[in-house]
């Protein structure tokens, strides 16, 4: 008979949302859990196509994978559209709704597990809290994003404060100290009426998240005490800050990657601006041309991971007319600019000593990757909670915001781009201060996982103890 105080570790079921930025965070979480509980049974659940695309390191016991059948075409989506990266923005809501069709297969899988279970799911799969209740399992929501960004994102969906005023600035009803500007509201939120499919979906997500036992958050307690408090009060669950949870750099010996690093090697320390707007969004064509002109006017070397403008399919390639005539050729001749089509080895670029700043869409993974290497940001949020992430890092003093959004009304001036780049990368008081603060945050992020005593390490330990206590 087991001793009364013996730990009983449950079978942990991880269920990330079907998006490229979410799956790697859950894989890293699996590694962190198993490092602290050797032999822990962990199963990652997703669609066959996503699981088939994974390259997993050897482990003992191996991470289990379980595929749930998913037919996007049955919901009016393109055949094989298994992730958000496979579709356009206007199709996102149909994809969100289609993802709810995974519930019966997930219920069947969980019901077949004989041992105690702990379900750790993405907020988009908050309905798994009800599956956990029916199974007698414990449940946690894992937020790969930050605390403040998610708390504000949920608040805006719940209250639609911009729809109840003509003013450009307005406070959040549940967090009156947080004042937003209309330009910080994403396009699909701006159009929401409260009776639309987007609002209905996100209000379902919020309601389900309020049924969870715990909130695992990809942030650091020392950096986001207020955001964690907001999130905990909003969703009524204990928060466990376990960040930074970052995927390991993807090893690559490709000729393109080697060429990128060699190009960076030719530039002085902290002199290059890296530009990327993530894997799921882009700026519009007019903004792209103006950004190019601003980069040229700044005189600073840059490395730009290019995607086609908003509304164009990345699979169709990049057309020269989306950039000013002769722009790429001039940059190449002077060795002041390198344009990379599609994916770039972001972590390796940010870790390179020549990288001086990151012009980013302010997705949370990108923010953490940048600040983990002490690289300050130039912010250009495009959608979702990115606007609120940008607000936070501007308040931290590690970001200068250069533009907002990619709508036709979202104007960009090349002069403002040039000024922001020179300010952050150049020998200016602001640049020096942002670099100093970014380096300080890098130290805080690293310290969170130092053992013993690191705040993230202690938080994950506390979460595991609470789960094990519940299944004795």
UniProtKB/TrEMBL annotation:
Concerning its family, UniProt says: Belongs to the UDP-glycosyltransferase family.
Its domain of life? Eukaryota
- Which EC number applies? 2.4.1.-
One Pfam match, given by its short name, reads UDPGT
Q: Which SUPFAM superfamilies match?
A: UDP-Glycosyltransferase/glycogen phosphorylase (SSF53756)
What keywords is this UniProt entry annotated with? Glycosyltransferase, Transferase
Give a GO molecular function annotation for the protein: UDP-glucosyltransferase activity
The protein here is known as Glycosyltransferase
PANTHER family, alphabetized: GLYCOSYLTRANSFERASE
């Amino acid at each position: 008979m087991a001793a009364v105080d013996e730990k009983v570790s449950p079978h942990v079921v991880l269920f990330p949302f079907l998006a490229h930025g979410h799956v790697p965070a859950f894989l890293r979480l699996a590694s962190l859990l198993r490092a602290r509980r050797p032999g822990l049974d962990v199963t990652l659940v997703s669609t066959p196509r996503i699981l088939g695309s994974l390259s997993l390191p050897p482990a003992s016991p191996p991470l289990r994978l379980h595929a749930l059948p998913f037919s996007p075409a049955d919901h009016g989506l393109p055949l094989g559209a298994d992730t958000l990266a496979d579709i356009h923005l206007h199709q996102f809501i149909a994809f969100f709704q289609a993802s709810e069709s995974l519930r019966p297969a997930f219920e069947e899988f969980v019901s077949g597990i004989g041992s105690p279970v702990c379900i750790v799911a993405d907020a988009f799969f908050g309905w798994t809290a009800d599956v956990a209740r029916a199974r007698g399992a414990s449940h946690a929501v894992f937020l790969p994003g930050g605390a403040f960004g998610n708390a504000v994102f949920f608040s805006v969906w719940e209250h639609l404060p911009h729809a109840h005023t003509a003013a450009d600035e307005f406070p959040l009803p549940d967090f009156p100290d947080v004042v937003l500007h209309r330009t910080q509201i994403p396009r699909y939120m701006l159009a929401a009426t409260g009776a639309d499919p987007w609002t209905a979906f996100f209000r379902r997500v919020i309601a389900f998240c309020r049924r969870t036992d715990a909130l695992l958050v990809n942030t650091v307690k020392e950096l986001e005490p207020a955001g964690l408090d907001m999130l905990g009060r909003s969703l009524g669950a204990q928060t466990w800050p376990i960040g930074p949870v970052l995927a390991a750099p993807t090893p690559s010996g490709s000729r393109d990657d080697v060429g990128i690093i060699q190009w960076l090697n030719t530039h002085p320390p902290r002199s290059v601006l890296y530009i990327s707007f993530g894997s799921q969004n882009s700026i519009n064509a007019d903004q792209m041309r103006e950004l190019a002109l601003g980069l040229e006017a700044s005189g600073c070397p840059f490395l730009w991971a290019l995607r086609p403008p908003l509304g164009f399919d990345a699979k169709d390639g990049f057309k020269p007319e989306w950039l000013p005539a002769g722009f790429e050729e001039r940059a190449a001749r002077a060795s002041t600019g390198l344009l990379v089509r599609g994916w770039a080895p972001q972590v390796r670029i940010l870790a390179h000593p020549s990288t001086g700043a990151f012009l980013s869409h302010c997705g949370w993974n990108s923010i953490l990757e940048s600040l983990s290497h002490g690289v300050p940001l130039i912010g250009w949020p495009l959608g979702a909670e990115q606007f609120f992430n940008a607000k936070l890092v501007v308040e931290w003093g590690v970001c200068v915001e250069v533009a907002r959004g990619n709508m036709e009304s979202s104007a960009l001036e090349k002069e403002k781009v040039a000024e922001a780049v020179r300010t952050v990368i150049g020998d200016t008081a602001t640049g020096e201060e942002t670099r100093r603060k970014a380096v300080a945050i890098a130290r805080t992020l690293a310290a969170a996982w130092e053992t013993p005593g690191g705040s993230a390490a202690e938080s994950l330990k506390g979460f595991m103890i609470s789960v094990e206590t519940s299944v004795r």
